[in-house]
Amino acid sequence: MLLTTRVNDVAAAEEYESFLQMSGLTPGELRWVRLEAEPLPPLEFADHSGFLLGGSQFNVSDPDEVKSPLQLRVETELGVLLRRVLEVDHPFLGICYGIGTIGRLIGATVDRRYSEITNEVTISLTPEGVADPLCAGLESSFGAFVGHKEAIGELPDSATVLATGEGCPVQMFRYGANVYATQFHPEMDGPAFARRIDLYRDAGYFPPPEAERLIAAAASSTANCGAVIGNFVRRYGG
């Protein structure tokens, strides 16, 4: 199941297509729930081999008093689901917004110290990351796309850092055996990220005058770390 929260219909549809592309799944194999559009339906874990949580315009570190009723509803429903995920160690991969959401529940510090402007950055695997099956096929250092206003500053000792970056110390972690999260976007290649930049040019992730330069750089990039999603599906989807 893919859970998303993007209020922009074009961005939401393209995000779903990106997950389909990188996962190798068909629409019939990847159930999609837009949490910003509908409440989370009742779920049976036995019916879902894993959960994917995509990015968002929401920031979990914002004070509750500035969060919209929609964001508070989404966070409440995700909290119920993800506490169950953590309790039974059900396969989960959270991306960007997903890393902050699951991170907060395990006691990580989530704040704005390590925000990154929308861009391609170099990600480096830790020794634990090199050995982890979700990172199979990745180079020890690889290019990936980021763009986030908040990030994890510190993880509890119970979590394992799998990847780091110069501007953000926690780019990927594992909790338990089957719960994962990335700050970078493994679902996106260069052309997809260029379209995302165009859609979000006024969303505060970068100075608007930089949009055309960032779009051109992303469109010509060959960065692709979709193996993370493909590995997740192969490991847990059969």
Automatic annotation (TrEMBL):
Give the Glutamine amidotransferase domain ranges: 81-189
Entry-linked CDD domains: GATase1_1 (cd01741)
**Classification via InterPro entries:** ChyE-like (IPR044992), Class_I_gatase-like (IPR029062), GATASE (IPR017926)
One Pfam family linked to the record: GATase
**Looking at the UniProt record for this protein, which Gene Ontology cellular component terms does it annotate, in alphabetical order?**
cytosol
User: Would you tell me the protein name for this molecule?
Assistant: GMP synthase (Glutamine-hydrolysing)
**Biological source species:** Naumannella halotolerans
Lineage start = Bacteria, Bacillati, Actinomycetota, Actinomycetes, Propionibacteriales
